[in-house]
């Protein structure tokens, strides 16, 4: 049985920009390295017992088989002492300089060895997100040209996507060999593309199929004809496609679904896209993902700036929780909800593309560790609902 959990996370993104000359280490920029003990205490004060947490990969993984575990030992040790269960986030948008970027064909195998060694060092950790938001990472790194390899072409995008997904699959297999009861919460962006007019319908539907690629790889779902043509044209081989179909570990997985105001997109007839705002909303989009994969679902990320009135983030929390309850009423096995992240972030309004140092007021606490109104609202929501939501039996899901 999977008990329902309320979670938050420590923002740990670490991509490089400006051709690798600047690393956007959000744990550094948001003060976590200096205040990690205080941050964990704040998590506990909110009544949260599950934390999405990843130590900095670029600081910890020094080379093949070489590690600096000092900070990880301290941080995970304190979480264990406090009784906060981590969802170990092993790769969050960046790799160490010695690997280069997500075009490196050795990355998946090297990363699986890191995951194995991590699991050996922390055998008490059960929950993992091996690679965070594969779709977003590949898109921002290799299609939009914003992060890491900063590429802008079809082949680079497909290469990054297959390497990220393969790294995730191999890491899961390495971990479950050591911890057979491991559970993998694959935090992935839930997207939707709307046609702005009749002439954009075909393009929007094509994008709506391609948004599933990372999870289709991860869960071993055979690609449809259009998806297959897309990845083969991008340099994948039939054997690489077959690898994913043969190595999936769905019985260990929870479908983590991330949703923000920017996850829905309007598609114009000329192929340009722009934000559609909250049009369908989380419940309708997440249900489409659930029906595709038939796995227990967790709302693994959401937030919104507090806004000029200071109430927008609280309203968004109420709205997202209503979506979660709506999914439950429809019989979707939802096992958790997450406001991400614990504190405000830096420069996420521009997806970390430039180092401007602008604070995004979307955390449960500000960067001085003072609680925000949404933090109080989340604390109250947890107090009201924690322990009052039925557990989910993953064996009862469709197709189990």
Automatic annotation (TrEMBL):
<protein>
    <submittedName>
        <fullName>Family 1 glycosylhydrolase</fullName>
    </submittedName>
</protein>
<dbReference type="InterPro" id="IPR017853">
    <property type="entry name" value="GH"/>
</dbReference>
<dbReference type="InterPro" id="IPR051923">
    <property type="entry name" value="Glycosyl_Hydrolase_39"/>
</dbReference>
<dbReference type="Pfam" id="PF00232">
    <property type="entry name" value="Glyco_hydro_1"/>
</dbReference>
<dbReference type="InterPro" id="IPR001360">
    <property type="entry name" value="Glyco_hydro_1"/>
</dbReference>
């Amino acid at each position: 049985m999977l008990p329902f959990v309320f979670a938050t996370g420590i923002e740990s993104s670490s991509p490089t920009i400006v051709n690798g000359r600047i690393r956007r280490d959000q744990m550094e920029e948001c003060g976590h390295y200096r205040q990690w003990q205080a941050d964990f205490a704040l998590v506990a004060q909110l009544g949260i017992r599950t934390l999405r947490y990843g130590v900095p990969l670029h600081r910890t993984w020094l080379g093949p088989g070489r590690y600096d575990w000092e900070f990880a030992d301290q941080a995970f040790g304190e979480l264990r002492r406090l009784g906060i269960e981590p969802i170990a986030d092993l790769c969050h948008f960046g790799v160490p300089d010695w690997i280069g970027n997500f075009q490196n064909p050795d990355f998946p195998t090297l990363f699986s060895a890191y995951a194995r060694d991590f699991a050996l060092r922390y055998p008490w950790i059960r929950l993992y997100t091996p690679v965070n938001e594969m779709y977003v990472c590949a898109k921002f790194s290799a299609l939009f040209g914003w992060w890491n390899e900063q590429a802008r072409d079809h082949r680079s995008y497909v290469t990054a996507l297959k390497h990220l997904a393969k790294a995730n699959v191999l890491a899961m297999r390495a971990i479950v060999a050591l911890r057979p009861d491991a559970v993998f919460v694959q935090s992935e962006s839930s997207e939707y593309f709307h046609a702005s007019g009749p002439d954009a319908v075909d393009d929007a539907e094509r994008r709506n199929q391609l948004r599933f690629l990372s999870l289709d790889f991860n869960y071993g779902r055979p690609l449809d004809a259009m998806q297959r043509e897309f990845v083969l044209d991008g340099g994948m081989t039939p054997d690489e496609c077959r690898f994913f179909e043969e190595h999936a570990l769905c019985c260990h997985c929870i479908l983590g679904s991330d949703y923000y105001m920017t996850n829905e997109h309007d598609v114009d007839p000329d192929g340009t896209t722009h934000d559609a705002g909250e049009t369908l909303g989380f419940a309708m989009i997440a249900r489409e993902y659930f029906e595709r994969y038939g796995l227990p679902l967790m709302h693994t990320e959401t937030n919104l700036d507090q806004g000029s009135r200071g109430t927008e983030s609280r309203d968004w929390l109420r709205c997202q929780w209503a979506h979660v309850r709506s999914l439950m009423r429809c019989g979707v096995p939802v096992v958790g909800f997450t406001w991400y992240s614990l504190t405000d972030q830096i420069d996420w309004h521009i997806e970390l593309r430039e180092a401007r140092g602008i604070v995004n007021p979307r955390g449960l606490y500000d960067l001085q560790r003072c609680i925000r109104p949404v933090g109080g609202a989340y604390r109250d929501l947890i107090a009201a609902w924690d322990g009052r939501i039925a557990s989910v039996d993953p064996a009862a899901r469709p197709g189990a």
